[in-house]
Amino acid sequence: MDQLIIQDLHVSIAEQEIIRGLSLAVPKGEVHAIMGPNGSGKSTLAKVLAGHPDYAVTSGSVLMDGENVLELAPDERARQGLFMAFQYPSEIPGVTIANFLRAAVQARLPEGEELEATDYYAQLYKKMDLLDMDRSFTSRSVNEGFSGGEKKRNEILQMAMLNPKYAVLDETDSGLDIDALKVVAHGVNSLRGPNLGVLLITHYQRLLNYIVPDQVHVMVRGRIELSGGKDLALQLEEKGYDWVRDDISEPALA
């Protein structure tokens, strides 16, 4: 079975260990949610998967369909089918969404193959219709002056266009009101299918009311302490993270 497999991962920054033996497997066709208190290492995990240079992987592996992505540069990971949506997307003034996406799609084509404009726009408009997006959206500069919901919607459009094998969504509900949350959830749910595995990192259970996960994992102090079905998120909402581990009082991680 094709999977994104994280095995006994240890990660440090400035000689402080942040991730302490984390293991996790996300099969294609499933949505897995990682929940945890602030400082548990959730966003660090996302940055490591993306290839952020500030984080040192001291041991362990990350296999995507059998290939160790830790040996690949960030752009190579993306071309191999790993998509990252970050909590705080960057602005790119002067670059329209249409041109940005076209360059991203072109970069994933085999060397020497050119993307036909008519094919590109046909695909773009098809995805926008799927996500209930107005086509004027693509003429705006990437994330410039966007609301939180517009930034997240833009990332879901990127994911739809790039058609990744695995998507890691880091705190995609951060800063969203309930209407924006529903729009983003609709977009993610529209893309669910047997060829996409999703790792959804979130702090709150509310997102999981709209994007129902196949599995929920609780991350505390740099490792997965508990896994279960979607009802586990409801238990966390009721009992809090102290229910998982009573000694969370150690210093928080980055």
How would you describe this protein?
The chain is α/β, with parallel strands linked by helices and 254 residues long. It folds into two domains: 1-89 and 168-174 and 194-254, P-loop containing nucleotide triphosphate hydrolases (Rossmann fold, 3-Layer(aba) Sandwich), CATH 3.40.50; 92-145, no CATH class. It is 31% helix and 29% strand. The protein has helices at 42-50, 74-79, 97-107, 117-130, 148-162, 178-191, 231-239; strands spanning 3-13, 16-27, 31-35, 56-64, 67-68, 82-85, 92-96, 141-142, 166-170, 197-202, 215-220, 223-228. The strands form three sheets. The chain has a six-stranded mixed β-sheet, with helices on both faces. Strands 2-1-4-5 form a four-stranded antiparallel β-sheet, covered by helices on one side. Helix 5 runs parallel beside helix 6. The longest helix is centred in the middle third of the chain and has 15 residues, at 148-162.
The tally of beta strands, per DSSP, is 12
Structural class, please? alpha/beta
Biggest pleated-sheet summary: 6 strands, mixed
If you compute it from the alpha carbons, what radius of gyration comes out, rounded to the nearest whole angstrom? 18 Å
Let me know the average pLDDT.
89
> Given this structure, which CATH class of the largest domain is correct?
Alpha Beta
As laid out across the biggest beta sheet, the strand order is 6-9-10-3-11-12
